[in-house]
Amino acid sequence: MKVIFLDFDGVIVTPPKVRSLNKGCCDNLKQIIDETDSFIVISSCWRNLHPLDYLKRKLAEKGISRKRVIGITPRGNNRDEEVQQWLDNNPVDAFVILDDDVFDLQEHIDKVIQTNFEVGLTGLLAEKAVAVLNGTGKG
Question: Considering the domain boundaries, does residue 79 fall inside one?
Answer without folding.
Answer: yes
